[in-house]
Amino acid sequence: MKRIFFVEDDLSLIGGLTYAMKKEGYEVENARTAAEAEVLWAEGKYDLVILDVALPDGTGFALCEKMRQISKVPIMFLTAADEETDMIMGLDIGADDYITKPFKLAVFLSRIHALLRRSENFVQAGEEISMNGITLDMRSGEARKEGKTLELTSGEYKLLRMFMENPDRVLTAEQILAGLWDCDENFIENKTLAVYIRRLRMKIEDDPGAPEKIVTVRGMGYKWSTKGKG
Question: Which pLDDT does position 195 carry in this prediction?
Fold first, then answer.
């Protein structure tokens, strides 16, 4: 049974969403404050974390940063619909997804299923791919840059793998979103992909401001260029 850690202080959301997740077969543990969340996180092991941005004694952002220091667990933020900066910040600090309030229950559950499927596929038997100084090891689910292990989330790993398995091939935003999320890509906005691309470039490019590995093909999409350094 998959365990979900749900950090939210709104009692109406806690009751309704917890019931829905349990009905889907998930085990759910809830924390209503940042302090309570830190205690439970230290004591438990979870397959997915859902964080509200605003908590009575802190923020979901701070919790996400602490979790990312020691774990690749999938993290999804709940954000207000008009707070685009929250979405971007959440993705920047390592979240895998966000969903805006108010939202439809079916969409919420679909996103949970997609994140858990992606996490399960994070480590897959296979072989190594090496290009441009980057090595992708599908057996261990790790990536290395010039021999040094890269700290990637499951989403970043899957995005990198998608590019390296399609060298010098232009991938449209729609193709990338469909492959990255394994769900209806209409739920995901293009600005989310832009954040993912920028975050991955920060980790693999020598100069993220002038990328040579993941390059933008104007008006078409992105591609992994084998002409980059290395």
Answer: 84
Q: How far apart are CA 88 and CA 91, in angstroms?
A: 5
For 77-109, the pLDDT digits (tens) are 998 756 677 777 888 888 888 888 888 999 899
Domains: count for the chain? 2
Instruction: For residues 207 and 114, state if they share a domain.
Output: no
Residue 4: φ, ψ to 5°: -115, 130
State the pTM of this model.
Answer: 0.68
Closest alpha carbon to 183 in 127, 126, 130, 107: 107
pLDDT over 80 (residue 113)? yes
User: Distance (Å, rounded) from C-alpha 215 to C-alpha 101?
Assistant: 34
Lookup: tokens for 64: 């996400």
- Contact, 49 vs 7, CB < 8 A? yes
What letter represents residue 167's amino acid? P
Q: Do residues 95 and 140 both lie within one domain?
A: no
Domain assignment of residue 168, given as a range: 128-224
Structure tokens at 225: 């260029």
- Residue 158, pLDDT above cutoff 80: yes
Long-range contacts of 147-151 (CB under 8 A, 24+ apart): 150/203, 150/204, 151/203
